[in-house]
Q: What sequence folds into this?
């Protein structure tokens, strides 16, 4: 079996399914479990920290782990950074077969911090029977020192290990999402997957096929295609005229506005507005034009709400009427920017869906990471796109 700790809504699982494999996910969040069920993924709803390891011993080929990142993420209070010495202590003890979690937990400033040590509890038990064959772990960049500690331990146990920071945009994800990655294997030399994309396209050369330009948000969402034009807002109301479609202070979802007919891509409006994605409502928020990848998507707090914002496409020829106010990104759009299918069955209310999306591993990045350990050959993006 492939065991997926902290499985979330299925980023790793969806990638595995496209590669012809399945995992069993352990996940606590009710709505992430419902999303996984709707997507046809195998799931046990449980607290990973409380679930026994013995059922997996002697049966596990691969172990995947993406512990919750809220305690470490720059999008949160980052109390996990203050708890790092305790987490390192827990990992060292668990690797030696000593479980001191109950003693350390009361001292943690964030009770989620120790979850980053949970993979070692499973790895120690599996190590007793020479398992797993491979390991793949992902977290926010601040966790890299912890992954290095894991790497030292796994090397002592006979694994080849690589850990470092990867940018998801370098692997065809329309998002400059940087993550700390650990890859380990008992049967092959561990190394990061070869990037397929770059900020500027690189031609083929003597030693490789070159790299494509980063995938933009517009490309990922299909904006600009004949059936999905770049959004432009009609200042004169819907197709039948009428009042301004944007009441004072209104914040409509782009897809909802399209369905209501409050904007339409008329020839006279085409190119009127230039659209960008703002990552949150804070002063230092990342703002990216749709011609570029998004910044890192993170949700879970109102301040982290991503919105589309517009400005006149040509400063010399501003569009008529009032510039539309910020428009909330939809779950479907956010999922696409994470490389989930447009029809992925997100469950729960908007907040619950966005929380799942922001915490998920982009499936396309996961496929790059998993292909070598599953097939001993590089990732084939063409096959992935056909399967997706």
A:
């Amino acid at each position: 079996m492939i065991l997926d700790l902290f499985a979330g809504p299925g980023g790793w699982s969806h990638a595995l399914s496209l590669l012809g494999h399945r995992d069993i996910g352990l996940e606590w969040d009710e709505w992430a479990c419902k999303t996984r069920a709707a997507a046809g993924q195998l799931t046990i709803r449980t607290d990973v920290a409380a679930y026994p390891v013995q059922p997996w011993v002697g049966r596990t080929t691969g172990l995947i782990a993406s512990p919750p990142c809220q305690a470490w993420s720059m999008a949160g209070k980052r109390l996990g950074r203050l708890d790092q010495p305790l987490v390192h202590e827990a990992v060292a003890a668990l690797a030696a077969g000593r479980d001191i979690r109950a003693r350390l937990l009361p001292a943690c400033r964030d009770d989620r911090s120790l979850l980053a040590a949970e993979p070692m509890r499973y790895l120690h038990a599996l190590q007793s029977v020479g398992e797993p064959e491979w390991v793949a772990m992902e977290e926010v960049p601040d966790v890299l020192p912890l992954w290095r500690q894991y790497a030292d331990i796994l090397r002592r146990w006979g694994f080849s290990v690589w850990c470092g920071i990867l940018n998801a945009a370098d692997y065809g994800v329309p998002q400059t999402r940087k993550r700390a990655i650990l890859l380990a294997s008992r049967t092959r030399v561990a190394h990061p997957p070869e990037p397929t994309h770059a900020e500027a396209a690189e031609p083929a050369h003597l030693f490789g096929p070159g790299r494509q330009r980063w995938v933009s948000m517009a490309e990922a969402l299909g904006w600009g295609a004949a059936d999905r034009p770049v959004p432009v807002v009609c200042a004169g109301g819907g197709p039948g005229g009428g009042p301004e479609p944007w009441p004072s202070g209104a914040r409509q979802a782009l897809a909802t506005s399209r369905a209501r007919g409050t904007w339409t891509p008329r020839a006279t409006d085409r190119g009127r507005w230039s659209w960008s994605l703002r990552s949150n409502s804070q002063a230092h928020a990342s703002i990216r034009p749709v011609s570029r990848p998004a910044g890192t998507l993170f949700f879970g707090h109102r301040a982290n709400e991503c919105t589309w914002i517009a400005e006149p496409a040509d400063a010399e020829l501003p569009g008529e009427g009032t510039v539309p106010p910020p428009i909330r990104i939809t779950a479907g759009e956010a999922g696409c920017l994470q490389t989930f299918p447009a029809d992925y069955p997100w469950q729960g209310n908007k907040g619950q869906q966005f929380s799942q999306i922001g915490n998920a591993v982009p499936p396309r990045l996961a496929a790059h990471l998993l292909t070598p350990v599953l097939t001993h050959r590089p990732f084939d993006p063409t096959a992935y796109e056909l399967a997706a």
Remarks:
- The mean pLDDT is 83.
- Residues 144-156 form the longest helix (13 residues).
- The longest strand covers residues 160-167.
- The CA atoms of residues 21 and 179 lie 24 Å apart.
